[in-house]
UniProtKB/TrEMBL annotation:
It comes from the Bacteria. Residues 52-129 form the Thioesterase domain. Belongs to the thioesterase PaaI family. Keywords: Hydrolase. Pfam families: 4HBT. The keyword Hydrolase applies. One of its GO terms (cellular component) is cytosol. This is Hotdog fold thioesterase. PANTHER family: 1,4-DIHYDROXY-2-NAPHTHOYL-COA THIOESTERASE 1. One of its GO terms (molecular function) is 1,4-dihydroxy-2-naphthoyl-CoA thioesterase activity. It comes from Oryzomonas rubra.
Length: 141
């Protein structure tokens, strides 16, 4: 059974991401499941650091993007919005090229807060980064 209170299509999410950091980093939304959101990001000149490997900040940006969008789908967007409280990212292994894919799944979806786990894998399905995002659900004013 889906957990989404404000469901959206991949096309709608992509359209909302136009002219943002997500578009600049080349993030592509792949799949919305009953309780997860999946996207991928290229490892290229936009997302590598000077040593030639995926920048940890790019991994954190992918994680926060996935967790924030998923969290937004779990509230009534007419009445509430979400804001980030904390993000944690543990970088497991380097990636020099190709794509990384992230999947956000909920740990806790409450009335006032949500916690999301985001796992990022390389094209060989090796864990690259694991992240946890905490957001607050706040009333729109």
């Amino acid at each position: 059974m889906p957990i989404w209170k404000s469901p959206a299509t991949l096309e709608q999410i992509t359209e909302r991401s136009r002219n943002t950091l997500m578009e600049h980093l080349g993030i592509e939304y792949l799949e919305i499941g009953d309780d997860y959101l999946k996207a991928r990001m290229p490892v290229d000149e936009r997302t590598r650091q000077t040593a030639g490997i995926l920048h940890g900040g790019a991994s954190a940006a992918l994680a926060e993007t996935l967790g924030s969008i998923a969290a937004g789908l779990c509230v009534d967007r007419e009445r509430q919005r979400i804001v980030g409280l904390e993000i944690n990212a543990n970088h497991i292994r380097p990636v020099t090229e190709g794509w990384v894919t992230g999947i956000a799944k909920p740990i806790h979806v409450g009335k006032t807060t949500q916690i999301w786990e985001i796992r990022i894998h390389d094209e060989r399905d090796k864990l690259v980064c694991i992240s946890r995002l905490t957001v607050a659900n706040i009333a729109k004013t």
